[in-house]
Write a structure and sequence with these properties.
The complex is a heterodimer of chains A (287) and B (751). Chain A is of the alpha+beta class and 287 residues long. Chain A has helices at 12-21, 34-39, 75-79, 82-87, 89-95, 101-104, 109-114, 122-129, 225-231, 238-251, 262-286, and strands at residues 5-7, 25-28, 47-50, 60-63, 66-70, 132-137, 140-145, 150-152, 155-156, 163-169, 176-183, 194-203, 206-215, 222-223. In chain A, the strands form four sheets. Chain A has a five-stranded antiparallel sheet with strand order 4-5-10-6-7. Chain A is globular and about 60 Å long. Classes of the chains: A alpha+beta (287), B alpha+beta (751). The complex binds flavin-adenine dinucleotide.
């Protein structure tokens, strides 16, 4: 039996080189998905490329009025960044629903996104926030929306040799905020049966713009434009929320599985999106 | 109420000292099964069936055996053929042939996870690689994991020779229903006909697992002279010894089992899985072998508690006096018979005086791991159904559910399910305490509901041995053969300290291996503090007699002239006076020690009542448990904290059973949630602090009045939670677990 090798490159170029030269190499960030999967025999990495020593992949900095979050930054570190928490409280909450404190001290949003679970908690919130990713690879760097990363359960659109260096959040306009809610049978240490993230901008009591992201209701997390459209131009009155709920349910293509039935998911997605929209509105108004 | 006036005053009993194993456990030093290491040890691994039901055509282990580092390979062919024989393990039991086949499949596999072959190798990774080199040729058979489906006429039959025992007219049709059991009194039809109000309903529950944190593991060394040493945690080292000897046709005295610290059992460690396999691997390899299960092995291959179906009808007159009751239920036993039908029947209606009743239970095999005991084995899901209907009855009568229970509650002198009159039993005291408890009258808000339920478990006595010996400095060693799963070493030391009159810290209690103490039944049936405690008290009394005799001879007086009090001998002869301490007495004149064996047939019953408040999110079906008050007749709490721990633990496991736990099988009959992520036991943040109210109604046949407390507290929670959810939603809940989607479905169906 051969055991996997471990590398901890210090630069993006070095990491890209290691990933390009070995098809069996896998990025490891927090390892809270990867190690569990390897121990269960579901994946057999030939090499682990640890990105936690790459300075560009660690930490949170201001970027174009918004933020750039290194892909290897643990979720609990987000809580310590006051400006980030003020601008994108729903996104920070979503990342800090993952597992337990111990898990989140390791787990990253980059790993959450690239693990490509349809139920990943931070992803609907990132989608609602309109986040993008800086991807580095053998042919240089590119910036793509987070929605483009997961392609199917457990699969990403990243090419061999590519990895996510940072996640970028746009500037939060005044009157803007966000929220994320998930349904789980327990209170923590669980996988979302449904997740809903809503970000919106309010102006004089009217919703100027909105984005709605859903998790665990389709093979990948969804951006539901029809749901956002139902909110824009309204005061988020009951009619608007009902219309949004219908758009959310219509967008759901869930499966029945051990974690929940398709009908439960479709129903609850609308309930959570509605509640998240109201929380986001109240947060926006409180600013 | 609990009258304290006549309560004896104790020095040690009723205090809360630190348990002797406490430091080891909180510092991580305690040695659990999978931690045990023996020089020269190699590593075993087990190949398990991916099929729920299949015939094994052949097994080819040649490639595995040829892998460098592999020292032994074992299959079912290495096990001796046995004659069918019932074995009673204290908390359940079964046929020795089934126990052997459950350790290693022969011609058929009966569930996903059934062991089919094993290897031992010089490293765990070589052992894992060797398993991949074993090829098993299976003929996959139709399977049945669902209880109702297993009872259907056209169900795939697991055991071709099985015929239903206990039928009025015996049938020769092969079946999965292993047994029908009837318990009745009077004329149920007449009883229900007399009723003014009848409530009825059909209930079901999914199989659940005990969820102990420590996976099964053992280390075994087989010597060429045939003597075997086994190190393993379990609820009974003597149980391991007996069953391993019987499965392998070995003399019992050739096996020595050393108990290791146990990381939870809850009944699940009253049976064996690995030990005979490890003995054979050790015998073949000539090396000590350690075998350990993974978490998914534990869920797939070790005993869950049965899933159930239960129909209940209870009728009462206009004053709420129950006139008749009918309970018909079935339990899924898994691969081999034994779902706890008899205890479930006994417990189902036990809290109430019912003139006419009929209880019919069925034990049904299914393609699931063979069930094992789980706190009050068999009873809790049937009690859930009965307590739901009692609640429904109270609703129909417009009567307070405590009042309805009080009107029908059994008390001392009423006939117990066995016919023998109940001894002192505190059900009425508990219901009265519940009624005046502030919890019962606290206002509730919208979407909140309150439920109450009772639950009974008869408890067990059984055989125990204890030995007590004095050391030169006057400190005391208490040795028993009862594995400590809930703080029993502390309780044993406390009872001995109370009797001898020394401080708790002067008495150390240990659990000995099977060659170092006389036979003791396993720790189960809530029997240890009662029965083993009784043995400890008797042995300590003998030691006190020895100390008095020693004092008498020193003083040259009759033994009758020596009194024992406050940990010292006092001379009562007129011409002499003085005292001699334990330390002064045991320093001279040879060792003082004593052993006592007991087999008490008369344990005190376990009975509990719980009040639960919940809030149900009407849009998502999510249940939040807001408040729980657990009341229990504990006889006498030797160590109140550990009694409270048992009560709280029972509530927690019961809440898991009520809300989220349950086996989920995929279309192939494989267990789909074989891990703690998707088999959802409660996490700390799911639960409020659970308040406890201990009602002490001492039990006369134990020197301090102990009643077993470990099992009764898991009987009421499912009924109490379901009644609370029903109160919050206005809809009766019929299925466990009451997961959020289930609740929304039941509410939608009712509307
Ligand atoms: C007990 C427990 C509870 C959990 N609870 C939750 C929960 O509530 N919600 C939830 O969403 N998840 C949960 N998870 C899953 C997991 O913790 C999260 O998905 C986490 O965010 C993964 O991050 P990581 O850094 O640990 O990823 P890793 O395990 O390091 O990586 C995950 C995958 O992504 C790849 N990868 C990582 N970083 C990059 C990158 N920068 N570029 C390209 N590929 C990359 C890896 O190769 C791997 O395939 C839980 C896990 C555990 C063990």
């Amino acid at each position: 039996m051969t055991s996997a090798t471990y590398h901890a490159p210090a630069s993006i170029a070095e990491a890209v080189g290691l990933l390009s030269s070995d098809p069996a190499a896998r990025i490891i960030a927090g390892g809270t998905d990867l190690i569990v999967q390897a121990r269960a025999g579901r994946v057999k990495p030939g090499a682990y490329v640890d990105i936690k020593r790459i300075s560009a992949a660690i930490g949170i900095r201001s970027f174009e009025g918004g933020f750039a979050i290194g892909a290897a930054t643990p979720c609990t570190a987000l809580l310590e960044h006051a400006a980030l928490c003020a601008a994108w409280p729903g996104m920070v909450e979503a990342a800090n629903l993952i597992g337990s404190v111990q898990v989140r001290n390791r787990a990253t949003m980059g790993g959450n996104l690239c693990n490509a679970s349809p139920a990943a908690d931070s992803v609907p919130a990132l989608i609602a926030a309109g986040a993008t990713c800086l991807v580095a690879g053998p042919s240089g760097e590119r910036v793509i929306p987070v929605t483009d990363i997961p392609s199917a359960p457990g699969r990403t659109s990243l090419a061999q040799g590519e990895f996510v260096v940072e996640i970028r959040l746009p500037a939060q306009p005044s009157g803007g905020s966000d929220a994320y809610l998930r349904a789980i049978p327990r209170t923590e240490m669980d996988i979302a049966v449904v997740g809903a993230g809503v970000s919106l901008v309010m102006d004089g009591g009217v919703c100027k713009s909105a984005r709605v992201g859903l998790g665990a209701v389709a093979p990948t997390a969804l951006l539901v434009e029809a749901a956002a459209a139902a909110l824009i131009g309204t005061t988020l009155d009951d009619n608007a929320l009902d219309a949004m709920g219908e758009a959310v349910s219509a967008a759901c293509k869930p499966i029945d599985d051990k974690r929940g039935t398709a009908s439960y998911r479709t129903h609850t997605a609308a309930v959570l999106a509605r509640r998240a929209a109201l929380i986001a509105r109240d947060r926006a108004g409180a600013k | 109420m609990n009258d304290m006036s006549g309560k004896p005053q104790y020095r040690v009993v009723g205090t809360r000292p630190v348990r002797p194993d406490g430091i080891d456990k909180v510092t991580g030093k305690a040695v659990f099964s999978a931690d045990h290491f023996v020089a020269g040890m190699i590593y075993g691994a087990i190949l398990r069936s991916p099929h729920a039901h299949a015939r094994i055509r052949s097994i080819d282990t040649s490639k595995a055996a040829a892998l460098p580092g592999v020292k032994a390979v074992v299959t079912g062919a290495d096990f001796p053929a046995l004659k069918s024989m019932e074995v009673d393990l204290g908390e359940g039991g079964g046929d020795i042939v089934d126990m052997s086949v459950n350790c290693m499949a022969r011609d058929k596999v009966f569930y996903d996870g059934h062991a089919v072959a094993a290897v031992a190798a010089t490293s765990a990774s070589i052992a894992a690689e060797a398993l991949e080199l074993i090829t098993v040729d299976y003929e996959v058979l139709p399977h049945v994991t669902d209880l109702a489906a297993a009872m259907a006429d056209d169900a795939p039959v697991l055991h071709a020779r099985m015929r239903t025992k206990g039928l009025d007219t015996p049938s020769d049709k092969p079946t999965n229903v292993s047994m029908r059991f009837v318990m009745e009194k009077g004329d149920v039809a007449a009883g229900l006909a007399r009723a003014k109000v009848v409530a009825r309903g059909s209930f079901s529950s999914a199989p659940v697992h005990q969820g102990y944190l420590e996976p099964q593991a053992c280390t075994v060394a087989y010597n060429s002279d045939g003597q075997v040493q086994i190190w393993a945690s379990s609820q009974g080292a003597f149980m391991i010894r007996t069953v391993t000897a019987q499965v392998l046709n070995l003399p019992i005295a050739d096996i020595r089992v050393t108990p290791l610290e146990i990381g939870g059992g809850f009944g699940g460690k009253t049976v064996i899985y690995l030990e005979p396999v490890a003995v054979l691997l050790s015998k073949k390899s000539g090396r000590p072998v350690r075998l350990a299960m993974s978490r998914s092995d534990v869920f797939r291959a070790t005993g869950p508690a049965p899933g159930t179906i239960c129909d209940v009808a209870i009728g009462c007159d206009e004053n709420g006096i129950i006139t008749g009751a009918e309970v018909t239920f079935s339990g899924s036993a898994g691969a081999f018979p034994g779902s706890g039908t008899h205890p479930a029947a006994v417990c189902s209606l036990a809290p109430y005086k019912i003139p006419d009743y009929r209880i019919v239970g069925h034990d049904v095999v299914t393609n699931m791991a063979c069930t094992a005991a789980y706190r009050s084995p068999g009873a809790p899901p049937i009690i859930f159904a009965v307590e739901s209907i009692v609640d429904e009855l109270a609703g129909k009568l417009g009567m307070d559910p405590i009042d309805l229970r009080l009107r029908n509650a059994i008390q001392e002198g009423d006939p117990s399910p066995s016919g023998v009159p109940f001894g002192p039993i505190g059900l009425k005291e508990m219901l009265e305490a519940a009624k005046v408890h502030p919890h019962w009258s606290e206002p509730l808000e919208a979407n909140q509901g309150r439920g109450i339920a009772a639950g009974y478990w008869p408890n067990f006595g059984g055989q125990s041995t204890a030995s007590v010996s004095l050391t030169d400095d006057g400190t005391v060693i208490v040795t028993t053969g009862s594995p400590d799963i809930g703080g029993s070493r502390a309780s044993m030391a406390m009872m001995a300290a109370e009797v001898i009159g020394l401080p708790y810290d002067s008495v150390r209690a240990t659990v000995a291996d099977t060659s170092s103490i006389g036979y003791s039944m396993l720790t189960g049936g809530s029997r240890t503090t009662f029965a083993t405690g009784k043995a400890v008290v008797e042995a300590t009394e003998k030691v006190v007699d020895g100390l008095k005799a020693r004092a008498a001879s020193i003083w040259g007086v009759d033994a009758g002239a020596v009194e024992w009090a406050g940990g010292e001998a006092r001379c009562t002869a007129q011409d002499k006076e003085g005292t001699l301490s334990v330390r002064e007495l045991c320093g001279k004149g040879g060792p003082i020690s004593a052993e006592a064996t007991v087999n008490p047939p008369d344990p005190g019953p376990g009975i509990a009542v719980q009040i639960v408040d919940v809030e149900v999110d009407p849009d998502t079906g999510t249940v939040t448990v807001l408040r729980v008050t657990a009341l229990q007749d504990v006889g006498r709490a030797i160590h109140p904290s550990y009694v409270e721990g048992q009560m709280q633990g029972g509530v927690v496991q019961g809440i898991g059973w009520a809300l989220n736990e349950g086996y989920v099988f995929n279309a192939k009959g494989q267990l789909d949630n074989a891990g703690f992520l998707d088999y959802r036991i409660p996490v700390a943040s799911d639960l409020p602090m659970i308040s406890t109210v201990m009602i002490e109604v001492p039990w006369p046949s134990h020197p301090f009045g102990v009643k077993g407390v470990g099992e009764a507290p898991i009987c009421p929670p499912m009924g109490a939670v379901a009644n609370a959810v029903s109160a919050a939603t206005g809809v009766r809940m019929h299925h466990l677990p009451m997961s959020p989607d289930r609740i929304l479905t039941e509410v939608a169906a009712a509307q």
